[in-house]
Every structure is written in C-alpha cells, then in structure tokens.
C-alpha cells in the first residue's frame, strides 16, 4: 500500500498581504463603533499598539482633515493612524497647487486644501461675498444694496471635496465659474468648452449613518451638478480627475501607503495581495475588482506603476463584502446591464461603466471580524 504523507502549510508570522478597510458601515455607523470592529482589531493590533499586518483605512469622506478623521477613529477603536481620505491623492496633483482653485464642501476647507498643498484656495462663501448678486435662490440672503463686483482674479480649477451644506448656492456658483472660464459675474460663454478643470473626490451616491436608510452622499450632489450643466449647455461636464473609491488612482495611492508601512516596519515579504473590506457594491467591491483587473493587466504586460517601491506591485486585490452597512444581502443585482441602468440599480458614478463582474465580491462575510478571520485563514497567517 502507498503511504500518504499530509503536509500542513507553514504558518507565516510575516505578512505578505495588506488590508484596505472602509470605515462607514464597516467599522462605525456615524459615531457608533460596530461591535465586530473592536473584536477584529484585538487580532490586528499587538500589545505594543502596532498593526500585525499593513493596514490603511480608505474612506470616501472628504469634508475634514485627515488628522481629524484619524483621531476620531483612534478614539472610537484605539487603532494607529493609517487613514487615507478621498482627497489624499490630490497631494500628487502638484500642477494645480499654485493656481487659484475654488473649493466646495464643508468643514475646514481652507485647512484641508492647504494641507494637501494648494496655495491659493478660495471657498464658495468667499466667492459669494465677492459676487453677492449671484446667490439669489434664498430671498432672505439677497443683497439689499447693489455693490460693485470684484473681477481682479480668475478661478483656474474647481475642487469638489464633499457634499456642501447649501446645495443651491454651491451649484449656482460652480456653474457660474464653469460657464465664464473662471470669471463669475461675467456673461456666460458656452463656446468655451471644455471648461476649466474639475477635480472631484468621493463619488458615493449614498452612505450609512445612524439612520435606518442610507443618506445622500457627495455623489448625489455631483449628479445634480452634472445634470444642471448638461441641461444648460447640452454638453457633458468633464472631470480632470475622480478620486475616492472606486477610482484607480485611489487604490494606487492606497497601495503606495501599504508598501511604505511595510518598509517602515522592515517586513521583508513582498506585499502580494491586497484585501479591500467594504460594505458598498458600487464603491468598495467595484473599485477593488477594477484595481485587481488593472494589476493583472500590468502583470501580463510587464508595465510599471508609480506606486511601486523597491519590490514589485501587488499581484491581486481581493474584494471582501460585509453586511453591516449599505449592502443588503436580500437585494440582487440584475445581470442585464441595460435593465439595471433603466431600473437605476447602478448607483456608481456616471463615468464608470456598469459590469456585473465588477460588483461580484470575492468573499461575502457577516462583519469585519469575520473578514479578518477569513484573510488570516487564506494567508495561513499567525502573527503570535
């Protein structure tokens, strides 16, 4: 008889993988931690308060400073600072940093812009003060006295950080800037197309907080802006760059941060696989699968990416879907593309094509704790 020898895979204490965690709906709901998150990070953070594997928190939030979001997450879950905001990749867009840019959103917008490297940001509110005749939807805010208009500056690009508070004011003034080549208050010149550059962060149509149903996200504001622009001009609003999940540049920057973290900890194993854990089919799963496709194409073609450090780029980006946020396991995504668009099932951004394969997660788990267990099992990883 043939003697069979069973070989047990060797458990690794050094990580060859990294985690990309979404925050809202995965780790917290609003300001309330999801219980499974605390259990998960008991496994991911060692007794010295360090991660046992590279971790980046990739959030589509964009209306606060990165340091503020990191401090909030650390207070709620006691985790080290490895937060990446939807606007973080704007650090790489240096050609806009010395230009006058109009910034839209809420929170400390000027602080955010300066922190990213922008030297001449101007807010919607400042623009409104300089051109008080432009904002007239709210009758109570209309100026009582006509004032002279300051035309001494030109807006050279628009940066959309996140959903603003007064949508009508922001929509009006952004349209004014786009249709006047950066001189709001001037007559519209629709022949100036394409318009000045627009850079947008966070395309989430909806997001989950404490309410029982998802709430409007920045993606909803962008839908309004795009449709108003097209209704007026008959042409599509164009973006110079789209950031935040599911954009490729966001995952490139996240991988760069994963590699930098591994290098700082002097982990010798190349980072082979990224595990993107999220709650949203149209951002987290779509983005991870889209980036995985890009990694596989790069591998076949032997192309290089700016995210690479000394070692080779990751080979795979795997999507792990949790059921504690936007995702509803009882809702099916139709396979027919045309039908799904007609029924408004595709909640992704206008510029991202719907493909059933891209919203099919590699793994579905109940919560983030189960996600960590799954990855440790798949990687034969035992850090202790």
TrEMBL record:
Q: Which NCBIfam families match?
A: CECR5 (TIGR01456), HAD-SF-IIA (TIGR01460)
UniProt-listed PANTHER family: CDP-DIACYLGLYCEROL--GLYCEROL-3-PHOSPHATE 3-PHOSPHATIDYLTRANSFERASE-RELATED, HALOACID DEHALOGENASE-LIKE HYDROLASE DOMAIN-CONTAINING 5
| InterPro entries, sorted | CDP-alcohol_PTase-I, HAD-like_sf, HAD-SF_hydro_IIA, HAD-SF_hydro_IIA_CECR5, HAD_sf
Pfam families, sorted: Hydrolase_6 (PF13344)
Can the keyword Signal be found in this entry's annotation? yes
Q: Which residues form a coiled coil?
A: none
Name by which UniProt lists this protein? Haloacid dehalogenase-like hydrolase domain-containing 5
- What is any one GO biological process for this UniProt entry? glycerophospholipid biosynthetic process
Q: What is the lineage of its organism?
A: Eukaryota, Metazoa, Chordata, Craniata, Vertebrata
The signal peptide here is none
**Superkingdom of source:** Eukaryota
Record's GO cellular component, any one?
mitochondrion
> Could you tell me the keywords of this UniProt record?
Signal
In the UniProt record, does the keyword Signal occur? yes
Q: What family does the entry list?
A: Belongs to the HAD-like hydrolase superfamily.
């Amino acid at each position: 008889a043939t003697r069979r020898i069973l070989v047990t895979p060797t458990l690794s204490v050094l990580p060859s993988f990294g985690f990309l965690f979404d925050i809202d709906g995965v780790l917290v709901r609003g300001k309330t931690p999801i219980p499974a998150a605390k259990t998960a990070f008991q496994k991911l953070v060692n007794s010295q308060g360090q991660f046992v594997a590279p971790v980046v928190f990739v959030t589509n939030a964009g209306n606060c400073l990165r340091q503020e979001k990191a401090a909030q997450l650390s207070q709620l879950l006691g985790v080290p600072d490895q937060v990446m905001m939807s606007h973080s990749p704007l650090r790489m867009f240096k050609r806009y940093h010395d230009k006058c840019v109009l910034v839209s959103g809420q929170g400390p917008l000027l602080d955010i812009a300066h922190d990213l490297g922008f030297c001449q940001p101007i807010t919607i509110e400042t623009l409104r003060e300089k051109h008080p005749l432009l904002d007239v939807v709210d009758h109570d805010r209309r100026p009582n006295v006509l004032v002279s208009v300051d035309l001494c500056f030109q807006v050279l690009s628009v940066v959309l950080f996140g959903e603003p508070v007064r949508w009508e004011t922001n929509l009006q003034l952004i349209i004014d800037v786009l249709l006047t080549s950066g001189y709001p208050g001037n007559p519209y010149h629709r022949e100036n197309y394409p318009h000045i550059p627009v850079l947008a962060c966070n395309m989430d149509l909806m997001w989950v907080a404490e309410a029982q149903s998802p709430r409007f996200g920045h993606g909803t504001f962008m839908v309004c802006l795009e449709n108003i622009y097209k209704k007026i001009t008959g042409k599509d609003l164009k973006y110079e760059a789209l950031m935040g999940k599911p954009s490729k540049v966001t995952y490139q920057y996240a991988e760069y941060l994963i590699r930098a973290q591994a290098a700082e900890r002097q982990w010798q194993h190349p980072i082979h696989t990224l595990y993107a854990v999220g709650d949203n089919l149209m951002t987290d799963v779509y983005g991870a699968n889209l980036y995985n496709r890009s990694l596989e194409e790069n591998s076949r073609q032997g192309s290089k990416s700016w995210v690479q450090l000394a070692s080779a780029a990751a080979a795979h980006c795997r999507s792990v879907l949790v059921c504690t946020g936007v995702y509803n396991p009882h809702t099916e995504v139709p396979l027919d593309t045309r039908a799904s668009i007609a029924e408004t099932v595709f909640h992704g951004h206008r510029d991202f094509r719907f493909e059933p394969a891209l919203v099919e997660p590699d793994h579905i788990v109940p919560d983030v704790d189960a996600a960590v267990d799954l990855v440790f099992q798949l990687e034969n990883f035992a850090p202790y």
